[in-house]
Amino acid sequence: METETAVPERPAALRDAFGAGDGGRSALGWEAVRAFEARYGVVLPEPYRSFVAEVADGSEQGPPDHGLLPLAALPSDWGDDRPPRDLAQPFPLTEAWLWEEDDRPEEELDALLGPVFDHGTVVLGTDGCGMYWHLVVTGAHRGHIWTITDVGALPFGAEFGHTTGASGFAGWVAHWAAGKEWFDAR
């Protein structure tokens, strides 16, 4: 998974996956992307970076089920009582975690959960029912996609055992465009 170098063919492949003129929002352009990065102290991983600069800033069609959010937007069900998100702080996870099955005291879990939801990711969208897709922009899993729900968090990518899809934004989009179930590993 290449997250540092723009590959010229990727924006076209991503554009094809979403379908030109089918609910896509105008691309931000490079000046706006660089301004976002400067404001939040991050550099977006490729190919997502090129996608929002050159193809579209979100899309009304998926992925995920309720569409791809514009950069820095949050789903309508995110809630107003959350602390400010800090994209420059590293995303804390490197492996799946089902906190619903974690026996630690609730206060300890709550302290650990804040960074999972609010550090080092851009929220890509929701499949509803509190199931959010995140792109890690800071930390050991930079460039990986994670699904974070009310019960746990899982990385997306064949190497993690839950799906046959390739890791990263391009793999996630290709998996969706092929009409595959998210968790299709058997």
UniProtKB/TrEMBL annotation:
SUPFAM superfamilies: SMI1/KNR4-like. Residues 1-22 are annotated as: Disordered. Signal peptide: none annotated. Pfam families: SMI1_KNR4. Residues 31-148 form the Knr4/Smi1-like domain. InterPro entries: Knr4/Smi1-like_dom (IPR018958), Knr4/Smi1-like_sf (IPR037883). This is SMI1/KNR4 family protein.
